[in-house]
Amino acid sequence: MSIGKTGVPLVLGFIATAVITAVLYAAPAFGARHAVTGMAAGASVAYLGFILCFFLMPRPDEKGFSFFTSYLPGVVARYVVLIGTFCAVIFWLKMEALSVLLGAFAGMMAAAFVSLVKMRRPARKSPGA
Length: 129
Description:
Layout: H1 3-26, H2 35-56, H3 67-92, H4 97-119
Helix pairs in contact: 1-2, 2-3, 2-4
């Protein structure tokens, strides 16, 4: 799959999770200190990390791959954005830290599962089969 076919649904999914988090944050029944709001925010942070990983990782078919010019800038950008977003959610928006961590953990596990399932290849048949 190309970046265009996959990138648009990824960004739309992140927008959806961010909107859900904003609605929960603004809802009087939930608010910033509610566990569900924190878990939704953590899942949004994990989704942002998945998107950054997708867009900033060098592709296997790229020519002239170098650790310092292809991989390292993307890693630095990912960590700066993710740590900044995580800190903003906890300290600026004053969400419950434990629920944000739980949501981020669940989101990262879901992203890892999706990535691993997508990387699966069917087994080759042996020549004698």
